[in-house]
Design goal:
This protein has 144 residues and is of the alpha+beta class. It has a single domain, classed as Lipocalin (Beta Barrel), CATH 2.40.128.280. 21% of the residues lie in helices and 52% in strands. It contains 3 helices and 9 strands, in the order ααββαβββββββ. A hairpin with a 3-residue loop joins β7 and β8. The chain is globular. The N and C termini lie far apart (53 Å).
């Protein structure tokens, strides 16, 4: 019996994923090129979200394994930048994965920033909620 308990404990220890491994898996899924599928915005104190997909139509972003990115606004403007996935630990609710991206114009000046939470990330879809000063921006991307 002690041997079975030892084997079960050993199996559980070996099969458990660390937080770092879970972040790395998400980073691997994120690398590549993505095209906007849907965008919504909910202003502060607003009851409903506005569909603003038209404003992002044609936008593409490419995330590279070295944590750099290139954002094509669809209108001929390109932004370089950096990205990161982090984790927030909640006491009783588990963990939440966050997404940070900084975008710079062609002169290297800060253009805009996305700070938010990853709602969904798999090989084909990436949904992120970005918290802005004026409200909440939700972006849903499709892998190219």
């Amino acid at each position: 019996m002690p041997r079975i308990c030892f084997l079960i404990c050993l199996f559980l220890t070996m099969s458990a994923c660390s937080i770092e491994e879970r972040i790395e898996r998400r980073e691997d899924r994120l690398t590549g090129s993505w095209q906007i599928e849907r965008a919504t915005f909910k202003g502060n104190n607003a009851l409903f979200r506005d569909n603003i997909t038209e404003e992002f139509l044609g936008d593409r972003v490419t995330f590279y394994p070295d944590y750099t990115l290139v954002y094509d606004s669809g209108g001929g403007e390109f932004y370089d930048g950096y990205w990161a996935i982090n984790v927030l630990r909640e006491r009783d609710e588990g963990i939440e994965f966050t997404f940070d991206a900084d975008f710079f114009d062609f002169r290297g000046r800060p253009a805009f920033q996305w700070i938010g939470t990853i709602e969904k990330l798999n090989r084909n879809r990436f949904k992120v909620t970005v918290y802005e000063r004026r409200g909440i921006l939700q972006l849903r991307w499709e892998k190219l």
